[in-house]
Specification:
about 150 residues; five-stranded mixed β-sheet; disordered C terminus
Amino acid sequence: MSTQALTLETHDETVKDGIVLIDFWADWCGPCKQFAPVFEQASEQHGDITFTKVDTEEQQQLAARYGITSIPTLVAYRDGIPVFGQPGALPGPALEDLIQQVKSLDMDQVKQQYAQALEAQQQQAQEQAQQQSAPQRQGVRAGTDPAAF
């Protein structure tokens, strides 16, 4: 199986099932060009995995959604959950090792940890919103210690 282009429009549907590897790249990037044949070869060896590429020049919104600041960047999903993300070109054996690690994940445990992380993130966002909406208190001094402020 060869690689396919990933766009903002096709992203959510593409990553929702199975193992999906995303290579963020650009035509002007030397390390991206070195990594491309490694990624392509892995795609031919692993027909059970979806290999996708995001041209960061053409898909700037999608790259921004991921906060891509360095390319190439490789992101791995399994069953709709991002399980790996790292900038830098990987040599073939390291990519193969990563694929085996993603395949061997205990997804029940990953799903539980992911749900807990999302819950904590939502709680933190709510707390920040409450802090921002709370009225600012005027400088009321408690005691006479100047270090108490």
